[in-house]
């Protein structure tokens, strides 16, 4: 209830569309990467703007903590949920929102209704909501009302390779294998190999 009241108050003070424009002005001063799909003609999926990175105590950059602004411009193209390589991650929704599907339990056989080899739950995330995303969480997200979504995302050290949880088998598939077998069918399947490194404008 408090968050709903804060959202209403913020909406009354800040004109519609002003907050995303302000976030973009901040983002334009930061180095960023564009994540697209894997195939020819794939569209941008996510813009990652680096705000801050800690100095790791080891020589590996994977040991550090990073803070990003994330700008999501479309839904997850992949039907299968994915996880992340970080030990932990926390997201604060700043503008827009998304509907997350999160795996809650693996099944030994496909569900008779959905055909999925896991149970999942969905939740809508709105401005001022927080979302904990540990490394063993498998999820996917669709934008609410087709609107872009901005989040503040903090991640811990990289621990392992990430991948996808297949709906029909429940199996974990490393991202390289997943992308190589699916990119010909869907050019918007997301792959880190298609990151485009850009400098701040």
Compile the SSE list and pairings:
Layout: H1 2-13, H2 18-27, E1 32-36, E2 44-53, E3 66-72, E4 89-95, E5 98-106, E6 118-125, E7 130-132, E8 139-143, E9 149-155, E10 163-165, E11 172-174, H3 175-182, E12 196-198
Antiparallel strand pairs: 1-2, 1-12, 2-3, 3-9, 4-7, 4-9, 5-6, 5-8, 10-11
CATH topology: Jelly Rolls
Please state how the strands of the largest beta sheet are arranged side by side.
7-4-9-3-2-1-12
Estimate the strand proportion: 25-35%
Strand/helix succession: HHEEEEEEEEEEEHE
Oligomeric assembly? single chain
Secondary-structure-based class equals: alpha+beta
Q: Any idea of the CATH class?
A: Mainly Beta
Average pLDDT metric? 85
Name the overall outline.
Answer: globular
- CATH homologous superfamily descriptor: Jelly Rolls
The radius of gyration computed from the alpha-carbon positions, rounded to a whole number of angstroms, is 18 Å
How many structural domains does the protein architecture include? 1
The main sheet comes to: 7 strands, antiparallel
What's the CATH architecture name? Sandwich
**Number of DSSP-assigned strands:** 12
List low-confidence stretches. Answer: 192-201
Helix content: 10-25%
Distance between the termini: 39 Å
The DSSP helix count reads 3
């Amino acid at each position: 209830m408090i968050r709903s009241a804060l959202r209403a108050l913020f909406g009354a003070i800040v004109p519609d569309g002003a907050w995303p424009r302000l976030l973009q002005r901040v983002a334009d001063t930061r180095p960023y990467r564009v994540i697209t799909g894997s195939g020819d003609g794939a569209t941008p999926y996510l813009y990652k703007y680096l705000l801050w990175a800690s100095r790791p105590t080891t020589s590996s950059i994977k040991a550090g903590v990073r803070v990003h602004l994330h700008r999501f411009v479309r839904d997850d193209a992949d039907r299968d949920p994915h996880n992340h390589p970080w030990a932990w991650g926390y997201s604060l929704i700043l503008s827009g929102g998304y509907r997350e599907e999160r795996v809650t339990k693996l099944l030994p056989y496909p569900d008779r209704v959905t055909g999925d080899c896991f149970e999942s739950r969905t939740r809508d995330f709105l401005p001022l909501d927080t979302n904990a995303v540990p490394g063993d969480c498998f999820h996917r997200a669709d934008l609410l009302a087709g609107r872009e979504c901005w989040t503040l995302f903090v991640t811990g050290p990289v621990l392992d390779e990430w991948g996808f949880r297949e709906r029909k088998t429940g199996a974990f598939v490393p991202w390289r294998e997943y992308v190589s077998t699916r990119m010909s069918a869907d050019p918007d399947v997301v792959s880190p190999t298609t990151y485009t490194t850009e400098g701040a404008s």
